[in-house]
Amino acid sequence: MKKAGIIIGVVVVVIVVIVIIASGNGSPAENGVSEPETFSPITFTGTSDKTTSPFEVTTGEWVIDWSYIPDPEYPEYAVFGFYVYPRAETVDFVEAMIAPGDTNGSTYSYVGSGEYYIKVYCANIQSWTIVISPPL
């Protein structure tokens, strides 16, 4: 009788160990843990007004880093701004930025994943850059 109890105890321990090891295998999604979604940074550049090609964001939050170089002859008249639209939308933008005199900055978007495009408006600048990236 004592032997049977020891054998049952060993079998239970072995089963518990197997279950623990098996639960650590597989992808995080299989184990009920979701992997953070991300995407590679997307860069747009230009020297004048521009409508970008559509781009895809796979995170709920994302960062829009922007910068521009004013025309050295008329830096006080430099104008730079942009509007972010969902793909196929032409009226209702989801983000906007009009440079308040700064030549660079960041705008954080919380509109979610999806496909978007940007309309850039500018005057009296040499060049501009916009980088879309996931939050750090």
Q: CATH first level of the largest domain: which class?
A: Mainly Beta
The fraction of residues assigned to DSSP E strands is 35-45%
Helix content: 10-25%
Low-confidence stretches: none
CATH architecture of the largest domain: Sandwich
Number of helices: 1
Approximate shape: rod-shaped
Mean pLDDT across every amino acid position: 85
**Series of secondary-structure elements, N-terminal to C-terminal:** HEEEEEEEEE
Largest sheet: 5 strands, antiparallel
* Secondary structure tally: strands: 9
Structural class: alpha+beta
End-to-end distance: 61 Å
Number of domains: 2
**CATH-assigned fold name of the largest domain:** Jelly Rolls
Radius of gyration: 26 Å
Overview of the molecule:
This protein is α+β, with helices and mostly antiparallel strands. It has 2 domains: 1-35; 42-133, Jelly Rolls, CATH 2.60.120.380. It is 16% helix and 41% strand. The chain contains 1 helix and 9 strands; from the N terminus they run αβββββββββ. Strands 2, 3, 5, 6 and 8 form a 5-stranded antiparallel β-sheet that branches. It has a 4-stranded antiparallel β-sheet with strand order 1-9-4-7, with no helix packed on it. β5 (79-86) and β6 form a beta hairpin. The longest helix has 22 residues, at 2-23. The chain is rod-shaped. The termini are far apart. The mean pLDDT is 85.
